[in-house]
Amino acid sequence: MALSPREVLARMLLMRRFEEMVITLARAHKLGRQHLAIGNEALGAAALMQLRAGDLIYTTHRNHGHMIARGVDPGKALAEILGRAGGLNGGKGGTWHMTDPSLGFQSTSAMVGGSIGLSVGGAFALKHKKTDNVAVALFGDGALDEGIAYEALNIASLYALPVLFLCENNSKEGEAQTSRLATKELTAVPKALKIACASVDGGDPEAAGKAVATALAHVRDGNGPYFLEAQLVRWPGSHQTVHAFTTGVTDVTAAWDSAKASNVHAEWQRTDPILRTARTLIARGTVTREDVVALDNAAAVTMAKARGFAEASPYPKPEAALAGVFV
Amino acid sequence: MSQKSFTVAMIDALAHSLKNDPNVVVIGAHSFLSDRGLKPEDERALWDAFPDRLIDPPTSEGVCTSLATGAAMAGMRPFLNYGTATFAYEAFNQIMSETANVHAMSGGQLRAPLTLHMFAGIRGGGAGQHSSSPQAMYANSAGLELVLPASPADAQGLLRSAIKSDNPTVVITHTKLLAMTGDVPDGDFTIPFGQARIAREGRDVTIVATSLMVREALKAAEALAKDGVEAEVVDPRTIVPLDAETICASVRKTGRLVTVDEGNALCSISSEISALVAERAFDALKAPILRVARPPVPIAFSPPLEAHVTPNADKVVAAVKKLTQA
Fold first, then answer.
1. Residue B277 has pLDDT above 80, yes or no
2. Which of A322, A325, A326, A327 to substitute to test the interface with B, most B CBs within 10 Å?
3. The complex's ipTM?
4. Does CATH number 3.60.20.20 belong to domain A5-310?
5. What is the pTM for the complete model shown?
């Protein structure tokens, strides 16, 4: 089932406004560091919106976008980032470890390579139960530096496990790279292990959606694992340690209004998946400028409500720190 | 003497080691040197002076440990920095089964002179995966020396000794100590392993504390002094080897012991020191030994939850009062 481009854009806008709200709240509440998914919206929405009930998801410290893309309650997610009792994990996980098993989120690990390893365990269980559900491992290109990546890819191929390895590659040749692989072709390792592979422009929700659909069909049909490399743009603020709107608060009208063009962030405005998708859909007549503004306003309203919920949620009682270690 | 931050003191130890021994190599240099309080020109000078010996490897803790250990066994003297301590768990097999065993398992024929450094501790918002205080696990390895510096001077002198040591040595730096400043002797110097430091003299109770907890113990001692209780604060500085004599002598003087440890209380450094005193100085004790340590729970993200389980000066004061008012 093909995704509606309008719904995908709406979800992407919510993902963007969520992260911008995180920056706002982080400043207001003096929070520590978060790893934001600004720039990853197209791939995130296109991939996570295609998953079904029963699919298992394994993600990383850069998980906010995945949570929102899959449909997690943004209020509960914000509350978790604030460490509140009403948060997804009751305040125990925070920004790095948000969890919502009702939507398939099994693990959000901040250990590099953690998601790849656990995903093959989920896939092993799914295969054992003879379902057509899949496990999805989300990870950055840097995770391929870890030995666990090689081991997990190998065993997934060897046992024909139903797992989609979805690599969000935001390293670009010539820039500071996260991954230090001896090959620049990230799919070379899975290819050598006989895993079906593809690479796609992760800034284009339509192309990414098609590539993910092909990958999911392959895995659901019992053909074993699939490795999809999504090439992402790197948001100039992706390594920020101080909370800042590095490229400014997103103004969707910059997609068509040349008066909003930035000299400093011209390259970002050209490649920003939000602006890019808006331009494409408007040019094609799928949406109007007014539609884009309306979708963006709706996202802002959702986030204002989410903020209200999160800030009204109390902190957990200190004694809760001692509870819940064992089942 | 000059005033230095904890991180600059450690970097100075590393710089002396690099200058004095061409076999010293730093793996994981960036997170040890950059944004750690050096003047930009000083940092640049370091990178320029040792372009082939300051290395930024892939995110591959396992093989980096094997590489450092293998290179140490073949005549080099590597300093491996993992960054956050939990990242070293990715290399636990290499550390525990390979590195720690090199010398003894070869019947003394081989040696692995390398330093494994990590930033640890409950740091504020680190949640379950970035708040570890893993010292007891390394103390339990049999074959690794374990260093827990608590001041800039100790950091520099102990790190210099770690790099000179012919044994594999784990150095754990508490994240909350990084910005601490203090007097550090000028020039190149070492502090020998196995020599505790009496951080404060007192007659009523001995507080044995390590790493960041030394600072909390000293704060507690100041507060207790106002109530007429004079606490002696002992910082073992190295756990392997451990200066049992200084600890027991202090307890013999005061008759009371509180151990302060940010690690999980279960099978911890504080457990070990408590057992040591129970075995060797039981007759000197006027009251039970108390441990102030982290309860055995994963650290939660939420600030009030984290605060509830973090050992601090108030908890030390409460423990001491329990003993002195009994």
1. yes
2. A322
3. 0.90
4. no
5. 0.94
